[in-house]
């Protein structure tokens, strides 16, 4: 690696997520290009071409938001108000956004996406996945994937978000597994299916994930969001990288997740905003499952891009410790996207990995205006982001 080096000094508390380094006090991180090239204690730090002193603040890896739906148009304030007045959340609300999204221009969709990605970055998110799923025709899904690929780090094909109103279910599943998959696959790395009552059933979900895998995409599943169901088992059986939501889990589901590589991605802001019970984070962690936290930013069930808010809920309401929640929102998200140093996709040396602070990883850092990461839950709702480096560039 050649080029100028920048040392971030004066780090009071550094969360590395690297088992060999742990939590480092009085730390220095050296960046070069888009990579971290050195991490350690200040007294033994190498010289660098430039220095940024963060004045004793806490530093952690940038948030890895592994679940968002940000290619959309329209507004669902009225649906939210009705929900707060006692209406239940229903999968069918997705159709409202589908209608608005189809009617929007490419520019409208792109402007909205850029605005939300910028909002996330300003709050410390440095690696972000987003999905299609509000188009639900071949042309609209391809359009969403193309736009997503210009601004998100990872793109997921979610043609299987809902059977479009008026469509025949089985013919739609044929389309999702056939022509639509063929058309969207060149623009996406992942495929997803909403396996839930009111969306897609077990056999349909199984067919969709198998077709996507056969087409070379990684797979993930939306499951167990609104009630007990087969989503987790479909995901684990098919080697999905993650199953997202996991609000209603049986003991068998927890056991299956604990015995697999499938990450349980919990979406605390969604559970809160849809008035569902909090996902059973403690049961999953105690059983040995890998847990990620993500925002699920979308206009229906969770209209927030704040990963800090998700971490605070996970600690205050879901029984996670601050360390567990911060790991889940950084390294956990990286595992769900197979970008953690432990994943082959990140290269054997962890080259270009995200969610960790160690030599070779992408230079994604989040500096808090606080002395420790504990303040994320101790001071909920307070904007604590003080500086952000994304792939080596200071963006906040
Ligand atoms: O993850 N569950 C399905 N999809 C989104 C909701 C999208 C919407 O309501 O528009 C979710 O919660």
UniProtKB/TrEMBL annotation:
Listed cofactors: Zn(2+); Fe(3+)
Record's catalysed reaction(s): 4-imidazolone-5-propanoate + H2O = N-formimidoyl-L-glutamate
GO biological process, one term: L-histidine catabolic process to glutamate and formate
One cellular-component annotation, GO: cytoplasm
Cell location: Cytoplasm
Record-listed 4-imidazolone-5-propanoate binding positions: 76, 134, 161, 225, 301
Alphabetized GO MF terms: imidazolonepropionase activity; iron ion binding; zinc ion binding
Keywords noted in UniProt: Cytoplasm, Histidine metabolism, Hydrolase, Iron, Metal-binding, Zinc
Transmembrane domains' residue ranges: none
Pathway: Amino-acid degradation; L-histidine degradation into L-glutamate; N-formimidoyl-L-glutamate from L-histidine: step 3/3
Free-text comment on the cofactor: Binds 1 zinc or iron ion per subunit.
Enzyme class, UniProt record, top EC level: hydrolase
Binding, Zn(2+): 67, 69, 222, 296
Every Amidohydrolase-related domain range: 59-372
Residues spanning the signal sequence: none
Pfam families per UniProt: Amidohydro_1
EC number(s) from the headed UniProt entry: 3.5.2.7
Residues reported to bind N-formimidoyl-L-glutamate: 134, 298, 300
Residues given in the record as Fe(3+) binding sites: 67, 69, 222, 296
Recorded family membership: Belongs to the metallo-dependent hydrolases superfamily. HutI family.
Functional summary from the UniProt entry: Catalyzes the hydrolytic cleavage of the carbon-nitrogen bond in imidazolone-5-propanoate to yield N-formimidoyl-L-glutamate. It is the third step in the universal histidine degradation pathway.
Family annotation (NCBIfam families): hutI (TIGR01224)
Protein name as it appears in the record: Imidazolonepropionase
């Amino acid at each position: 690696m050649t080029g100028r080096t920048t040392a971030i000094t004066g780090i009071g508390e550094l969360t590395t997520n690297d088992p060999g380094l742990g939590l480092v006090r009085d730390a220095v991180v050296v960046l070069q290009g888009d990579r971290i090239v050195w991490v350690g204690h200040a007294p033994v730090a190498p010289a660098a071409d430039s220095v940024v002193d963060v004045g004793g603040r806490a530093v952690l890896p940038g948030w890895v938001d592994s679940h968002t739906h940000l290619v959309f148009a329209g507004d669902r304030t009225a649906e939210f108000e009705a929900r707060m007045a006692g209406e239940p959340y229903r999968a069918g609300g997705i159709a409202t956004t589908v209608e608005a999204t189809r009617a929007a221009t490419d520019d409208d969709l792109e402007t909205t996406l850029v605005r939300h990605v910028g909002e996330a970055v300003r709050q410390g998110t440095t690696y972000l996945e987003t999905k299609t799923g509000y188009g639900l025709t071949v042309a609209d899904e391809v359009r969403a994937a193309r736009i997503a690929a210009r601004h998100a780090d990872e793109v997921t094909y979610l043609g299987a978000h809902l059977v479009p109103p008026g469509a025949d279910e089985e013919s739609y599943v044929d389309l999702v597994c056939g022509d639509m998959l063929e058309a969207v696959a060149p623009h996406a790395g992942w495929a997803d299916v909403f396996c839930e009552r009111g969306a897609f059933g077990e056999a349909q979900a199984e067919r969709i994930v198998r077709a996507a895998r056969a087409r070379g995409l990684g797979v993930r599943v939306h499951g167990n969001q609104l009630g007990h169901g087969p989503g987790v088992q479909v995901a684990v059986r098919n080697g999905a990288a993650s199953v997202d939501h996991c609000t209603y889990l049986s003991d068998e589901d927890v056991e299956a997740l604990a015995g697999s590589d499938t990450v349980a991605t919990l979406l605390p802001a969604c559970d809160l905003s849809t008035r569902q019970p909090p996902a059973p984070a403690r049961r999953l962690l105690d059983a040995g499952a890998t847990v990620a936290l993500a925002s699920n930013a979308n206009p229906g069930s969770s209209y927030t891009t704040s990963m800090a808010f998700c971490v605070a809920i996970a600690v205050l309401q879901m029984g996670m410790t601050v360390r567990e929640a911060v790991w889940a929102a950084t390294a956990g998200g990286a595992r769900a996207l197979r970008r953690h140093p432990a994943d082959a996709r990140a290269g054997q040396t962890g080259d270009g990995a995200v969610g960790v602070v160690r030599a070779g990883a992408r230079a994604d850092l989040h500096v808090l205006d606080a002395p420790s990461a504990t303040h994320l839950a101790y001071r909920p709702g307070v904007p604590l982001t003080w500086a952000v480096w994304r792939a080596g560039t200071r963006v906040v």
